[in-house]
Amino acid sequence: MRKEEFLKDLGRSLGKLKREERRRQLEYFDELLKDMAEGGMSEEEAVEKLGQPRDLAGSILEQMPKESFRKMDVRGVILCCASLVCVTATLIFIKLSHGISFYVGGGDGPTSVFVAGRVGRPAVLYVVTALALGATAVHYVRKGKRGGRY
Predict the structure, then answer these.
(1) Following DSSP, what letter does each residue of 22-80 receive, concatenated?
(2) Beta carbons of 148 and 19 less than 8 angstroms apart
(3) What is the pLDDT of residues 104-124, one digit of tens each?
(4) Where are the domains of the chain?
(5) C-beta separation of 17 from 70 below 8 A
């Protein structure tokens, strides 16, 4: 395994850490690999000596204090849930706006009741759904530009 691939895998495995702490760990291991290479080892030998990135990340994560870990993205979770509810409600109302009919009773003619109805288009729901989806998209685009993880 090459150094770049090793560091990339290590970075992914350290995804639970805050961005700054993850960067610090990757810089440390990048420097360590450079020092090993300067000491006469090949890149592959140095990477092999450190072991598998997941195993190394596991031992690093065990030693990290609680403050080094990322907090859950509560705002993102709330926005996703709100968007999901709005989209579901919108799809239901779209289906209902085309009309719905069903029978109540035994269906033997005179004793059954035919119910038909139509629901108007709720423009407010469409606007709220669009706003929820837009807010969710903006949140994750901004988070991506700041280097946050999805």
Answers:
(1) HHHHHHHHHHHHHHHHHTT--HHHHHHHH--HHHHHHHHHHHS-GGGBPPP-HHHHHHH
(2) yes
(3) 555 555 555 555 556 666 788
(4) 3-68, 74-145
(5) yes
